[in-house]
Amino acid sequence: MNRRKIWLGVGVAVLLPGAAELVPETSGLLARLARAAGAEGGEGGEGGEGGEGGEGGIDPEAARRDPVVFGTALAVVDAHLLAGLAAIEAGERELGATLFGHAIAEVYVDLEPTLEARGVPPFLADLEKAQAVAENGSPAEIRAAVDRVLAATAAAMEKAPADGRSRLAVEAGVLAETIDRAALQYQSAAARPDDLEAYLDGVGWKLVAERKAANLLPELSKSRAEAATALSAALAALKPLYPAARPGAPADAGAALAAASKAKLAVVDLR
Length: 271
Known about the structure:
66% of the residues lie in helices and 0% in strands. It has 271 residues and is mainly α. α3 packs across α7. The termini are far apart.
């Protein structure tokens, strides 16, 4: 059993003998216990749920050296929050709060040492606040809490390691990876049609990709038109997969996966 799975979010029982239900005030302690358990078990390099669609697979050590891996790790946090927000706005408040918790337990607790090494101010408190507000807060409070975390991850990207690539090249690499993970996650979720969480994980990736594309593609098209075109085509291929916060008619992920692969090839040599 993955020790990080001990964390199941606010209001959910921990699967240990005699454990009581969690309450928001315990989230910081549980996050640190989850981090310690992962270190003890040698699982710190997994970084989320590698192998399950496009959810995780972040290597915190690689994130210390590679700016695209670093940016993708931050995008995992964003994707969980945007997926959780989509769930809440679709009437799935409990599931939304759980997805917020996953941003802490499956990503932040492993990534925090890397963030500290890069000089990124900690934002665990903002994540904990978002999860707590998701339980009982108003839509405006939840959105504000999410926006605080998104601002924190955007600021963290300013501390990404340098490897000779330009800012545009790095951002293009992160966007391509984000689109690819959205397509992979749909393929994984399609095999579990009754698992709304698996689908929402993909919704989160699609929403992150759209946010990044809105900021990046206009600038990228001026100097790297071929890469911008490939990324735009890959993003467009995601739309039939994720029409809303709940699954629509089954779609074929093949076109999206192929377009995502082309986009990754188009950006791999950018400098």
